[in-house]
Amino acid sequence: MHTRKVIIDSTQWISEEPDAAKLVGTIQDAMQNGTVVSLPLLDTARRRFTVIVNGRTVQTVAVDLDMNPAPTEMTG
To answer: Where do the DSSP E strands lie in 1-76?
Structure first.
């Protein structure tokens, strides 16, 4: 299963959502409208959490879109 990094404020999470656009849209909508959204995420130890994001108070969210290989990865 494909995973991607999600950083909410300064906390790193892992998402198993295969559709990056859907994940980004959900978070962006909550931030733009000041609403609350529940995200099924994993912590870095891969334990499952429901993370409740208050779009009114969160400062930054970064989502790894996995568009290019990481510096340690090689394309073949």
So the answer is: 4-8, 11-15, 36-42, 48-54, 61-63
